[in-house]
């Protein structure tokens, strides 16, 4: 029985690798990033967004500093701290509250280019949708430090 499962697993892995044969590295990278969480923008879109936004870009980190509230954030803190004066000073930490399904609104014009993020993209997507419902017109979900190829496009902002 064990041999059967191993054989099935290897067959599936072989089929999966064949599905990506001939796919460019860039396309494969985009697929991996988008598979991580629904709504996370691909690295190419994030890069273009960051370049176009320039100094107007606002990165909104919706992670909760209290890892007892969001235990998953503990892993992301090991990769990327919360914004502070010394680390990502242009980013802001506006905590997504799962109990109320809302967060504080940033004090910026509604057309400000905004990238939301959390540990992996789930709350970042909720925050993006919340901001859009509140009139913000230019918002992308950047995923989080776990989506390293996406994070590389905006994580130092």
UniProtKB/TrEMBL annotation:
Q: Where is the Rhodanese domain?
A: 53-148
One Pfam entry name: Rhodanese
Alphabetical keyword list: Signal
**Does this entry carry the keyword Ligase?**
no
Tell me if Secreted is a UniProt keyword of this record: no
Which InterPro entries does this one have? Answer: Rhodanese-like_dom, Rhodanese-like_dom_sf
The signal peptide here is 1-19
Source taxon at top rank: Eukaryota
Alphabetical list of SMART domains matching this protein: RHOD
PROSITE patterns for this protein: RHODANESE_3
Q: Which protein is depicted?
A: Rhodanese domain-containing protein
Q: Which organism is the protein's source?
A: Fistulifera solaris
